[in-house]
Design goal:
The termini are far apart. The protein folds into four domains: 70 residues; 74 residues; 137 residues, no CATH class; 68 residues, Homeodomain-like (Arc Repressor Mutant, subunit A). Helix content is 48%, strand content 7%. By secondary structure, it is of the alpha+beta class. The strands form three sheets. A four-stranded mixed β-sheet has the order 3-2-5-6, covered by helices on one side. Strands 1-4 form a two-stranded antiparallel ribbon.
């Protein structure tokens, strides 16, 4: 085939660097925005934090190009300060986070008089235990890893012996490979001085599958015990922890989540007051010294000397980048406020008292149509953003829900149906829990058109198990 050339006209849509920067800033919540602004201030020399009014009265110091270009040749006496007297002493600051769970386990192993080989193997086993306190890897795989990483040939039997020592450590149940072993290890460290405890151990040892599946009638028949005795045994099992790693509370990791709201909403005397939370977000501006430096180097004729050309181009690129960044921050502020105000207008009845039954059905397209923004932009705004109200801190994404239609043709939020489901399950007879089909009939009787598979979906979203697993005696 002959090789030929031809012209093709095509239309492509590409994002500019400014648009990409704006999109990335729009996705950031308040805490990450603060870190991003501080990072930009460190990277861009012409950006600085907005000073207080009392500091703005000072005249900006002049900086020359020659001094800027000789920045690396600064004498040593200019790069340090002497604000200390001879009587001052350097006092180190000690930061402690407490012992982690692996450190606590290794400390206990130190009192077991293990050989050097056993201690190395036990240390590797402890390192393989996850945060919940389980060892979820088979011992053959652990033995292979030890041979490759530590260089010690071992077997599953030897590791089983050392794992038995770890099972005797605190917290009780640590190093278990499944839930049954975890519960039995915890019971092994308790005195079997009562009949319910002995009965609970027998259930976990011989009838664990029936217990998990809640075949209570079958269990009582096989054990030949009364309902009261069976209830006491179940109460003993419920006192055990399914996650032994959570029993250790001295660890150095802080698991308490802290949420910084992005919006502040106040409702008083029938009026809403919405504001953007910018308490810890620094305001930035362009340092005027560099603007003056550019004017000095360019001169009145608009020409730049050859020796200053590189410095002018460098400073000018930094100033342009700073202007883009400041503009993106302002655009982010406007987009967030515009979107949140539209959500507030749409869900005004809900924001008055926080009653979820007053939530109107709302999807991303509803807000996009009212703001004139794209659906993807609305998605970025509501993702990982929170609003602080008089009734708590609310995740914006949780305000969006599907629309369900009643027999009368009225559209209601799926939250209303979830609330009815929750109420029905809370009030049900735990001896005979309501099935999904029964819940569907109840909702249909109330005028909500809903299928059984939709009931199952909403039940799973609420974290409620099936009827068989909700059964109690």
């Amino acid at each position: 085939m002959a090789i030929n050339q031809k012209q093709v006209l095509s239309l492509q849509q590409k994002l500019s660097p400014q648009q990409i920067q704006m999109i990335k800033l729009l996705e950031l919540p308040a805490v990450q925005l603060e870190q991003r602004i501080k990072q930009e201030i460190e990277e861009n020399i012409v950006l600085e934090e907005e000073e207080h009014a009392s500091d703005e009265e000072e005249q900006p110091q002049q900086i020359s190009v020659d001094e800027y270009l000789r920045e690396d040749d600064t004498p040593s006496y200019k790069s340090r300060i002497n604000n200390y007297s001879k009587d001052d002493k350097q006092r180190p600051v000690y930061l402690t986070e407490g012992r982690s769970l692996p450190e606590y386990l290794l400390e206990q192993l130190g009192y077991r008089n293990l050989s050097e080989r056993d201690m190395k193997l036990a240390t590797y086993l402890v390192g393989s235990i996850d945060e919940d306190g389980y060892l979820r890897r088979d011992l053959e795989s652990v033995a292979d890893d030890i041979a490759f990483t530590v260089g010690i040939e071992t077997s599953a039997g030897e590791l089983e012996r050392l794992l038995g020592i770890i099972h005797e450590l605190e917290p009780a149940g640590i190093g278990a490979r499944d839930l049954r072993e975890c519960l039995l290890l915890q019971m092994a460290q308790q005195p079997m001085d009562t009949r319910p405890k002995r009965l609970a151990r027998k259930i976990l040892t011989n009838y664990f599958d029936e217990f998990v599946k809640k075949h209570y009638e079958k269990l009582m028949s096989r054990l030949q015990i009364s309902e009261d005795d069976f209830r006491d045994a179940i109460a003993e099992i419920k006192r055990l922890s399914p996650k032994p790693g959570n029993l250790y509370v001295e660890g150095g990791t802080d698991t308490t989540p802290y949420i910084v709201p992005d919006f502040l909403l106040d409702y008083q005397d029938g009026h809403f007051q919405l504001s953007l939370n910018s308490y810890n977000v620094p305001e930035v501006r362009i340092n005027r010294r560099y603007m003056d430096m550019i004017r000095e180097m360019v001169g009145s004729g608009g020409l730049v000397r050859e020796k200053d050309r590189e410095a002018v181009q460098f400073v000018k690129s930094k100033i342009d980048s700073a202007k883009w960044f400041i503009s993106a921050i302002k655009q982010r502020h406007d987009t967030l406020m515009r979107t949140m105000q539209t959500i507030l207008d749409y869900q005004q009845e809900y924001f008055k008292d926080g009653d979820k039954s007053k939530l109107r059905p709302m999807i991303l397209k509803d807000i996009a149509d009212r703001t004139g923004l794209d659906v993807s932009t609305i998605s970025r705004v509501v993702n990982s953003k929170y609003v602080q109200t008089q009734f708590g801190i609310i995740l914006l994404k949780s305000l969006f829900s599907e629309a369900m239609q009643t027999d009368s043709g009225e559209e209601v939020s799926s939250y209303e149906i979830k609330n009815i489901l929750q109420e029905c399950i809370d009030e049900e007879d735990k001896r005979k829990p309501l099935t999904d089909e029964t819940l569907m009939d109840i909702l249909n009787a109330k005028g909500y058109r809903i299928a059984r598979r939709t009931v199952a979906k909403y039940r799973e979203m609420l974290g409620i198990p099936v009827a068989r697993l909700r059964k109690q005696i």
